[in-house]
Amino acid sequence: MALQVTEDPSKQSGSGQVRVSVRDLWKVFGPDESPDVPQKFAGMSKVEVQANHNSVLALQDVNFDVLDGETFVVMGLSGSGKSTLVRCINRLIEPTCGSVFVDQEDVLGYSDADLTEFRRKKTSMVFQQFGLLPHRSVLDNAAWGLEIQDVPVQERQERAREVLELVGLSGWEDYRPSALSGGMQQRVGLARAVASDPEILLMDEPFSALDPLIRRDMQNELLRLQEQMQKTTIFITHDLAEAVKLGTRIAIMRDGAIIQLGTPEEIVSNPIDDYVAEFTRDVRPSTVLTVGYVMDQQDDKPASPTINRPEAEIASEQTVDEALAQRWSIQGQLPVMDESGKMVGVIDRETLLKAAFEQPTPLTANSVTLHPATSTKNGDASSSAVPKSVFQDYAQNLPKPLRLLTTMPLWAWLGALLFIGTLIPFGGTGNVPDFLQVGGRFARWVNSAVDWLIINGDPFFSAVNIVVLRYLLVPLENWLQGLPWWLVIGIIALIGYRIVGSVFAALAVGLLIVVGALGIFELTMSTLALVMVATLLAVAIGIPAGIMAARNDRYDALQRPILDIMQTMPTFVYLIPVLMLFGLGKVPAIIATVIYAVPPIIRLTNLGIRQVDASTVEAARAFGSTSNQLLFKVQIPLALPTVMAGLNQTIMMALAMVVIAAFIGAKGLGVEVINGIARLDVGRGLIGGIGIVVMAVILDRITQGLAKPRQ
């Protein structure tokens, strides 16, 4: 269909009332994000703010209204602030100051619960990078907005199927997004936005990443949907041709500010300066200007005799191109009729030709560069736009001799320090003076703390001992050792077959038969029980700790050095306090194993959640996901391969502790290795080592296989 562009946006289908009103909106990225930025940055350019305040001025004093049912297009070059603007409307980015009114309610005053409800009911968003959930089907993606609203499964799937059929994706419901082309994926994104029946659609350059032909199809698809649904739409683009095709009105941005706002006809025929004129250069005015916009009003100019001929009538909403194609051969002034059939003016062929071929002139003579303003005459990007550091500012106020010291290279400073160190007789070479040494005092403090724990924490450590031994390790070990050896091999082979494949299952059977033939099957089951309990405890501690670190940067910064200490501390150091607190036996071996093996799963859980694609997380938030919905429905499923890699490393490190654990009373394969060392019996030590290797291979391949289907 052809979009009917009119001069007055209130003629667009809809009530004509203001749905979105943005007032005095500012957004600053950087240390200066106080609400008084309008006064602080008044009259300053974006470059000056960056140079003087080490901040980025993304939006400055933005004001506009969006009417019910219209498509309001915001466009500009990269970095002009258009994507930031649309994210401020639903607060994916928090504005620094100003107001965003939707149906006369200030969105910036919403509580978290109100904002979640606003995102669920009032708005939906379509993204440039799609933001689809790769681990879910097309149907589940389309139903995402309804799912997080707890709409029953059958109802939301029914609605999702309807909108998928509406965008031409019927039959693709069970496919994953990766099986679809870029244009089809964007159709899924559009279906997801429409499925929850929002009142306002926010679209951030949704078609810019698509091929030209697919892009044109998607534009036509949007026009068709808009004709049916009449949604209030805020559309972001950098392409004026797209803006003209889709938009009722267009706002053009530069350096965070709106510099011109008007209908497509006003933008194309009267660009405010060279910056806007540069956008209009490749747009033919005759494809944008309507007859109603360029006609002579009937009251101002009398009609010629040809006005009474029905075949000479021209619709006011026709473009100049269409009018010339249909009425080129008719001389004289032609009647212009509105939608009701009433004559509203006249136009002749000369006026149409002038509108078609006359190049519009900017209203102002200001020359505007389209290149980044940070460049200098010499082409050096490191101009005054690069903010000076606090150290540089401080150095400028120092006396000249001291200021020269700040310019010394690093090698000169190191050489000076080494030279001074040889001159000052402060302790012998490699020694620290006795009065600075605190090693003895530190050891006494640690011993006192451990003694206090032994005396006062005995009930707690006894309870831990009982729980781990009585309710975890002993039942599991007895169960594994009580099963027939062939049944254990069969269970492991079946698990290996389902998770990894038939080749691995056969390999596992062969390796376990070798273990049985070497006479260490019972010891292997004892070691397996110890590793399983230690891994279970490590997972119970590590995954929540990793999630907390991923969601809280301060906690992550506090936890990171602790993990560094745990991973670099010699393993035997763990045994001293564990022995004192729990005594000899299997429980201290498990505790020491947990301490040694837990860091990988914490780190990789944290890393996996943080590495979930930002566009996917943003899309989930835009539809009103709560923090728990975001975590359990999006982040953890997508982070699972990385989490499983952490589990794999935790299991391998737990196996590495088997021999050391045997020193403090843990039975299993480690005992064979220790006995081989004690008696210099290479064969016996090798048998124990073979058992450990077999366990490592089987557990490693199974945990790797668990992650593969989810990648």
Task: Walk me through this protein's architecture.
The chain has 711 residues and is an alpha/beta fold. The chain folds into three domains: 18-283, P-loop containing nucleotide triphosphate hydrolases (Rossmann fold, 3-Layer(aba) Sandwich), CATH 3.40.50.300; 287-297 and 310-357, CBS-domain, CATH 3.10.580; 483-707, MetI-like (MetI-like fold). It is 55% helix and 11% strand. The protein contains 31 helices and 14 strands. It has a six-stranded mixed β-sheet, sandwiched between helices. Strands 2-1-4-5 form a four-stranded antiparallel β-sheet. Helix 23 (521-551) runs antiparallel to helix 24 (553-568) and helix 30 runs antiparallel to helix 31 (682-707). The longest helix has 31 residues, at 521-551. Mean pLDDT is 82; it is low at 1-13 and 365-391.
SSE layout and pairing:
Blueprint: E1 18-29, H1 37-40, H2 46-53, E2 56-67, E3 71-76, H3 82-89, E4 97-102, E5 105-106, H4 112-121, E6 123-126, H5 138-142, H6 144-147, H7 153-166, H8 182-195, E7 200-204, H9 212-229, E8 232-237, H10 240-246, E9 249-254, E10 257-262, H11 264-269, H12 274-280, H13 291-294, E11 296-297, E12 314-315, H14 320-327, E13 334-337, E14 343-347, H15 349-357, H16 390-396, H17 400-405, H18 410-423, H19 439-456, H20 458-482, H21 485-499, H22 502-517, H23 521-551, H24 553-568, H25 571-582, H26 586-610, H27 614-622, H28 627-656, H29 658-662, H30 669-678, H31 682-707
Parallel strand pairs: 3-8, 3-9, 6-7, 7-8, 12-13
Antiparallel strand pairs: 1-2, 1-4, 4-5, 9-10, 11-14, 13-14
Helix pairs in contact: 7-8, 14-15, 20-23, 21-22, 22-31, 23-24, 23-26, 23-28, 24-26, 25-26, 26-28, 27-28, 28-31, 30-31
